[in-house]
Amino acid sequence: MAESALVVGVSGIVGNALARHLVGQGWEVAGLARRPSADIPGLRPVAADLLEPAGLGKALDGLRPSHVFITTWMRQPTEAENIRVNAAMVRNLLEATGRAGSVRHVGLVTGLKHYLGPFEAYGKGSLPATPFREEQPRLDIENFYYAQEDEVFAAARRDGFGWSVHRPHTIIGHAVGNAMNMGTTLAAYATLCRETGWPFVFPGSAMQWNGLTDMTDARLLARHLTWAATTPAARDLAFNVVNGDVFRWSWMWGRIAGWFGLEPAPFPAEVTPLEGQLADAGPIWAEIARRHGLVEPDLGRVASAWHTDADLGRPIEVVTDMGRSRKLGFLDYQATDESFFELFARLREARVIP
Fold first, then answer.
1. Whether residue 146 lies in the annotated active site
2. pTM for the predicted model, two decimal places
3. Which residue from 19, 29, 255, 290 has the fewest beta carbons nearer than 10 Å?
4. Quick one: 4-168 is in which CATH superfamily?
C-alpha cells in the first residue's frame, strides 16, 4: 500500500520540492494551499485556508493521509501576531486531519530562527554558540516557531502520531511569489545589474562577507523530510538540515556574478541593503520583463529583499551542525554553488529571468 501524504504549503519553496519528491517516490500526495500548485503531475490539489476551520474541514473531508508535512507560515506585523496566527494554523490543521485517525507522522519545517530569535529580536541578545546544535535550549524569548512546535507536540500526545521538526538554514529553491526566497531575489538583482550596468554589490554585513555560513537546498530538505518520516530512529526528534558544505560570501558572490556574466563589485565601505537598492526598481523590472517576455513583471513577486537583507546583514557567523542526522544515517550532500546555478537555470527555463 502506497504511503499517503498531505503537503501543507505546497505552493511554497519547500512544499513544491517535497510534493515533487514524494510523487516521484510513488506516494499518493495531496497538496494544500490557498492557491495550490497546478504544475505537479500526480498531485491532488486541495484549496483551503488554515485560518478557516469549517472550510478546512470540508476541504479535507475524505482524505486519510498517513503523513502530514507542514511547510507554511504567514508573516504578521508583530511577533505576538505571528504566534497567534501561526499557532492557530497548525492547531486547526491537526484538529482537522486528526478526525480521520489515519495520521502516523507529522513533519514540521521551521528554521534557524529557533536559535537566532524572531524577526523583532533577530540575532540579538544572548545567542547560543555556533555551530547550532539541536539539543541547545530555546531562547528565553517569544518565538512563533516554538508555538508551532508546541501545537504539534500537543496534537501528538492527543492523537498518538510521531513527529519530526526540521530546521533549515536559508533555503534555495523554486517558488515565485514566496516571502523568503534568497535565490530568486539574487537572480533578479543580478539581472537588473546586468541589464542596467549597476554594480553587483554585496548588500550585507562584513561578518557575512568574511565569516563562514551554510544554506539548505529545498530538494535536500525534501529528502530529509521523507527520511525522517520513514525512519523509526528519527521519531520525535528535531533536526538541523543544511547542504553539508560551508562557504564565505566573499567567495560565493563571485561565483554568482560569474554565472550572470558580471564582475563582482568590491565589498562596499557602507552596507547597502537590497531593500534600498531595489526600492525604485519596479518599473525597470517591468520593462525588462516586457522586453524579454518574462512571466512575472511584478518585481515584488520575484524578489523578497527584506528577507535577503535579514540573512545577509546578520552581525554573527552562522553555521549548523548536522551530527544528529548523520549518526542516524542521513548522509546526503549538496554543493551550495551548484544549488544556486541549478535554480538560476530553472528560472531561465521558466522565463522568470532572461
1. no
2. 0.94
3. 290
4. NAD(P)-binding Rossmann-like Domain (3.40.50.720)
